[in-house]
Amino acid sequence: MADSLSPADCARMLEKAESIVALTGAGISTAAGIPDFRGPQGLYVTRRYDPSRVFDIDAFIRDPEPFYEFTRDFLSIVDDIRPTLSHRFLARLEEQGRLKSLITQNIDALHHRAGSENVIAIHGDYWISHCLKCRAELDFENFRRKVEEEAVPRCENCGGLIKPDVVFFGEPVKGMDRAIREIERADLMLVLGSSLTVYPAAALPSIARCPVIVVNLGEVKLDPGPNRHFVNENLDTYLEAVGKALGHSGN
Ligand SMILES: [Zn+2]
Description:
The protein is α/β, with parallel strands linked by helices. Helices cover 36% and strands 17% of the residues. The chain folds into two domains: 1-33 and 83-123 and 173-251, TPP-binding domain (Rossmann fold, 3-Layer(aba) Sandwich), CATH 3.40.50; 35-80 and 125-166, SIR2/SIRT2 'Small Domain' (2-Layer Sandwich), CATH 3.30.1600. Helix 8 (110-114) links the parallel strand 2 (99-104) and strand 3 (119-121). The radius of gyration is 19 Å and the shape is elongated. Zinc ion (ZN) binds next to loops.
């Protein structure tokens, strides 16, 4: 692919930037051991879940059990997983004040667990849940406990159905206005582990008026351009080299 970027050059661009925005996709979490849902080892395939039923909001309200069966499976995978070097790399950039926000398509909440705070999870995630009746909020730890204790978690205040803030089919994506604003004012955009095939996230890099660095192993659906750099390499390996060039220690 045209115009690759050495880790040293990438590090120089990161050092110069003052307002970085990142967009992450499934590729940042597959390295942690979370299967891409749709891939050959994905839960949809190996456990025969039908995403159009599991994540359908009307089906969920009628019968939440299939969703909670999926959730128990999914969270038991997530329990054993640690954020990757790439998750930690982004948390470090935020800590340094350079990364202003992190837009993710992933629902696994690994960015939160790595220490990132300004996360815009456009497909939502499991980090926060709500009672659909009284809107009481549940944090991840309490939700995790209830999922193990109850076939279908119910609200302790009112008995209403609990739903994690994961975006279902038939629900609007979250935080798009904020994501667009952050991209418009950024002076550097990172796209990590996304092939840019799932909309609306796939359209976001085209909004950027700043340089865009795409790191993804495999094909990416974004046209080449003077301000666009494509790195077709393993994300963790590449960012480890960038981190070394930046003087990050002990990833
Ligand atoms: Zn309630």
